[in-house]
Specification:
This is Verprolin. The chain is mainly alpha-helical. Helices cover 23% and strands 0% of the residues.
Length: 159
C-alpha cells in the first residue's frame, strides 16, 4: 500500500515539475520579447517635479585620518643553555654461546632415471597440389528500377 502511494506521489510530482518548467519557459520568453519590443531609449531624469518638495541632501561624512600605530617592540632574544647528553650505559657482557652441534651427514641417495625417450619419426609431406583457377565470369547488366538510385562500381583494387 505504501509503495503504491509513494509511486503515485512521485509521478504527480514529476508531472507538476514538467508543467512548471514548460510554463516558466514560455512566460519568460514572452516577457523577454515584450520587453525588447516596448523598451525605449533611456531619457534624462527630470530635475524637479513641482508637486513633490525637494529633499535636502544628506550631510557629507568627513574623512577619518589614518590611525598611526606605535612601533612594535623588538622581541627579546634569549639564550638556551646547552644541555649535556648523559653517557650511554655500557652493555652487559654476554657469556659465550656453546658451540653449534654438527649436522649429521645425509645418506647418499641413488636415483634411477627412466630410459631415454625414443626418437619420433616425422613422415615427409610432399608438395601440395596446385590451387584450381577461378574462372572469369561476366555478369549480366543490372536492371534499373525507377526511383531507386544505381549503385556505383567500386574501382579495381590496386596491386
Amino acid at each position: 500500500m505504501a509503495s503504491a502511494v509513494s509511486s503515485l506521489f512521485f509521478a504527480t510530482a514529476l508531472v507538476m515539475m514538467a508543467l512548471m518548467i514548460m510554463l516558466e519557459g514560455s512566460t519568460t520568453c514572452h516577457a523577454a520579447r515584450h520587453l525588447a519590443d516596448t523598451t525605449t531609449a533611456p531619457t534624462a531624469a527630470p530635475t524637479a517635479i513641482p508637486a513633490i518638495p525637494a529633499m535636502p541632501k544628506p550631510p557629507v561624512v568627513p574623512t577619518i585620518p589614518a590611525a598611526t600605530l606605535p612601533p612594535i617592540p623588538a622581541v627579546p632574544t634569549s639564550t638556551v643553555p646547552a644541555l649535556g647528553v648523559p653517557p650511554i650505559p655500557a652493555l652487559p657482557k654476554i657469556p659465550a654461546m656453546p658451540p653449534m652441534p654438527a649436522v649429521p651427514a645425509l645418506p647418499k641417495v641413488t636415483v634411477t632415471l627412466p630410459p631415454p625417450m625414443p626418437a619420433v619419426v616425422v613422415p615427409k609431406v610432399g608438395a601440395l597440389p596446385p590451387m584450381p583457377a577461378v574462372p572469369n565470369l561476366t555478369l549480366p547488366p543490372m536492371p534499373s528500377i525507377p526511383g531507386v538510385p544505381m549503385p556505383f562500381v567500386a574501382p579495381p583494387p590496386s596491386a
